Structures are given as structure tokens and as C-alpha cells.
Amino acid sequence: MRIAINTGGGDAPGLNAVVRAAVLAAERRGWEVVGIRRGYDGLFHPGGVVPLDGAAVRGVTHLGGTMLGTTNRGSPFSFAVTDPDGTVRVVDRSDEVLERMRSLRVDCLVAVGGDGTLRIASELAAKGLRVIGVPKTIDNDLEATSVTFGFHTAVQTATDAIDKLHSTAAAHQRIMVVELMGRHAGWIALFAGFASTAEAILIPEIPFDIEKVARHIRRRYDEGPEFAIVVVAEGAIPAKGRKPSYLDDPRPGGSKRLGGVAKRVARHLEELTGRESRSLVLGHLQRGGRPIAFDRLLSLRFGSAAVDLAAEGRFGCMVALDPPVVKAVPLSEAVARIKMVPPDHEVLVAARRLGIAFGD
Ligand code: F6P
After folding, report:
1. Cβ-count burial 209-232 (b if 16+ within 10 Å, e if not)
2. Contact in structure between 160 and 209 (CB atoms under 8 Å)
3. Could you tell me which residues come within 8 angstroms of residue 347 by beta carbon, excluding any fewer than 6 positions away?
4. What's the burial of 72, exposed, middle or buried (CB within 10 Å: 0-12/13-18/19+)?
5. In the chain, where are the structural domains located?
6. Closest ligand 1 atom, CA of 257?
7. Catalytically annotated residues
């Protein structure tokens, strides 16, 4: 048996631990493993496919990023090709992926990624490739698994950062508005905002009325400490307008980037409360650094379980956490829809009970 492994989409702490676990588990079965660099890109470039063995994955469990590299613009179904005259064309190279896999004598691909990468994997599986998916994203927005690795590390990073904002906010009696990642789901903002005791948390699942947020903050200034922390998810939507903030148009083969909502919220809150406000975007810091122990364990379990599925011939599946066990779910089911924060989520309900405003 010869398996290939790749990592696609935005990186998340824990990717290296998955690669290590899959390589070691495969090696112990007497299998060979190759790594494909930068998602599927490596298949189309010399040196883009590398042999992996125990020595190659030594000492990587605790490292952030991914030793294989990644890209969130590399779908083989809509691959951006630049012509000699500079024209960019989007072409379908999925048949070449299957051919390359055959010529590399790869029996099964372990694809580690978020919804984009897993959707590609699912489409390749439909074309006949034997694929096993491993869910990854700091956004935690994959429906079929109770949690993705990388999420809790991102929450920890964001919580640590917001903790540091309290003193400067208090010193200047300011409103500090922090923008966190998460795309169209509010998991990181909800968890980090609650853990760091924000006054208001704005998430895409609950369109916010800025007047209500301002009223809540004015009351806090009147009654208690004269500063406020507002956590806003990058995909948060104002009730008036109902559109998220985007940064720019997508590059060929890529998706639109969210961003800018914190700046708007801070400006409106300053106008409505008369209190000085500042905004900051935590950005890619949330994806960086060492995975916390929870994420390392989940990654190691996922990598090992992916090899078990390959051994059982259960292709077209993804490993998923269904506490307390890691199980297999069909890839097509895993990418059917994104997982949003439900209105009755226990963390959301608890935050409301403690007086945190959601702008509704
Ligand atoms: O999906 C992970 C994520 O970090 C999102 O939270 C964020 O919107 C996006 O990736 C940022 O992507 P990029 O790395 O292209 O800026």
C-alpha cells in the first residue's frame, strides 16, 4: 500500500501532528507514504511530491504551520494558469490529478483540510480517486465533526490577546473593538469573547443592531468601569444592510476575503456613545504558533484513524470526532453545509445569562 498525504486551505495548528501520526501509523503497517506539497500544486511541479518516513516527521508534533505547505487557491477543478502574455485562465486539471496519482502508484490520498479542501476531495472521490478526509480549520465550521483541530488553539491565542487589551482600554477609558477570524461562523468570537469577558460579542449568526450595542455600552460606562471590549467576528452582519464586510475582489481561483467590520463598528460606537474607540484585527496570529495539547491529541488521533480507514478500505470517508470517539462519516455529508452557532448553543446561552450583549 502506498498513500499520499496533502494539506490544503488556510493552515491550522495541528497539521504537522496529523502528518506525523499518519506517516508513523502507515509505516508500522509496512506501507509507503509520500507528501504532496502545497495542496495539489505539488502534483504539477517537479519536486512537489516527497517521500515521508519516520525520520522526516520527527519532532514536528508541537510545530505550527504545515511541513507540506498549503494553499487556499489551489483547487485542481479551477486552477489558475498564467499564460506567457500575462493572461490568467482558470482551467480544470482534475483529470491530471488522477493520472499523476496513478503514475505515482498511490493507492489512497489522505486529504487534510477545511470545507474547500474536503469538497475537492469529495469531487475527486466521485471521479474514482480513493480518498480519506481529515477535517481541519480554526473556524470550527464543519458540520460533521464536533470540533476541528486548530480551533481551540485559535481561541486560546485570541483570549490571550484580548486579556492584554483590558488594561489599555481601562487606562484610556476606551472602547476596544477586536475583529476575530471564523469566516461566516462565530465560533472563535463566541468562545474567545466569552472567555475574555467581553461586553459585547457580534457573530454572523445574530445580525447586530449597533444602537443596541451602543446602549449596552453606555450603561456599562454609567454603572461600572469606564471601558469596554467588543469582540466582533469577521463575518458579523449588521441588522441594517445584512451584508458582511469584504476586503477586496477574489484573485482567480480564490474566494472573497472578509474584513473591516471592526473598524466600522468602532466608528459607529464612537459616534453613538461619544466615547473614544479603537479597533484592531487579530488576523493571522490566530492561525500561528504551537497547537495546544487538546489540538495535538485530536490531530494525532485523526492521523492514526485515517490510516485505519485506509486499511479497512473505507474510502470516500472523513474522520470525525463524536465524543468520546473518532468515527468515519461520508465525505459528501461532511461538506454538505457549514456549521453555524445554533441559537440555543449552551455557551451562547450562558454568555447571555451573564449579561453579554449580542446586539439583538
Ligand atoms: O478559514 C481559515 C481562515 O483563517 C478564516 O478564518 C479567514 O477568513 C481566512 O482563512 C483567511 O484566509 P487568508 O489566509 O487567505 O487570508
Report:
1. ebeebbebbbebbeeeeebbbbbb
2. no
3. 190, 191, 194
4. middle
5. 2-149+291-334, 151-287
6. 8
7. 139
Ligand 1 neighbourhood includes 73 CB (under 6 angstroms): no
How far, in Å, is the centroid of ligand 1 from the Cα of 10?
A: 6
| CB distance 257 to ligand 1 below 6 Å | yes
Cβ(10) to ligand 1 under 6 A? yes
Asked if domains 2-149+291-334 and 151-287 share a fold, the reply is yes
CA pair distance 4, 102, nearest whole angstrom:
11
> Which residues have C-beta within 8 Å of that of residue 125, sequence separation ≥ 6?
131, 315, 316, 331
To test the ligand 1 pocket, which listed residue (11, 117, 138) has its Cβ within 8 A of the most ligand atoms? 138
Domain 151-287: give its CATH architecture: 3-Layer(aba) Sandwich (3.40)
Taking the CA of residue 141 as reference, the ligand 1 atom at the shortest distance is: 1
| Ligand 1 contacts CB of residue 137 (under 6 A) | yes
Atom number of ligand 1 nearest to Cα 234: 8
Ligand 1 center to 282 CA (angstroms): 12
pLDDT digit string (tens) for the chain, length 360 residues: 999 999 999 999 999 999 999 999 999 999 999 999 999 999 999 999 999 999 999 999 999 999 999 998 878 999 888 889 988 888 999 999 999 999 999 999 999 999 889 999 999 999 999 999 999 999 999 999 999 999 999 999 999 999 999 999 999 999 999 999 999 999 999 999 999 999 999 999 999 999 999 999 999 999 989 999 999 999 999 999 889 999 876 666 567 899 999 999 999 999 999 999 999 999 999 999 999 999 999 999 999 999 999 999 999 999 999 999 999 999 988 888 899 999 999 999 999 999 999 999
Q: What fold is seen in the domain 2-149+291-334?
A: Rossmann fold (3.40.50)
What's the gap in Å between 203 CA and the centre of ligand 1? 16
